[in-house]
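Hey, can you fold this one?
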Amino acid sequence: MTEALCIRPLRCDHCGRELPVMGQLVTFQCPGCFRYWVLSTDALEPITVFRAVPEGAREAGADAGDLVHLPFWVAEIDGTGLKGQIEDAVKELQGVSQAALRTGFEGGSVKRLPASSEVGYLAARLDSLGSLKVYIPAFKSLNTYAYLKVGRLLTRIQPSFGLERSDGAGHPILCALRSEEATALADFIFFATLPESIQSNGDFLEKIHLAPARPPRLVEFPFRTRGASLVSIIGGFWISGRLVEGVESLVE
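Sure. Predicted structure:
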């Protein structure tokens, strides 16, 4: 039996105004009450959107170039739990390899273990962080590598910043990725921050899964346009403007 097709109006549940159609975007700002809504799999849900504010930085207007805010889902991962997963994965691989050696490789095979120095460094970093934030880009891009590259850079840096609510009139959030889709990408972005020797160890990585401690938050991060590049004000790295579809419409 096929499921019935359900058509719902694109309308603000608070004031009743129609929401503007935004193509592939899944977030909307009501033109009447300026509340934000996100399109889930079967309904419109209210959402609080934040802007990242540099800590101890100069005023954004002091830098040359035009300002662009790019949306990211920020997933917070419990560092202690992730460290425990890593330690359990290493112990399990060690146990499988030792059993295989004892039985002359019958019924099992020797597993390649990640270097103990690299695992130790990763565990120590998780201890120092307490919680790990994974940054999943939510902007539109014709190049899916953008999600890995930009998310990897912010996740590797683990920058410090403040937060303020983004609720200005006429300020749509150009988000093309749902929260559940972003959560599914968190593992891949985290793996991309690891040393290459660990990235290539499929036996180890298949045992690691990042579970956010709470639902991801949608946060806009500031970038400056410098020619064909976008320079992150929080983090200091740069990316090609070609990675972001329609970047010209984002300039403030």
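The chain has six helices and ten strands. Let me know if you want another pass with a different chain boundary.
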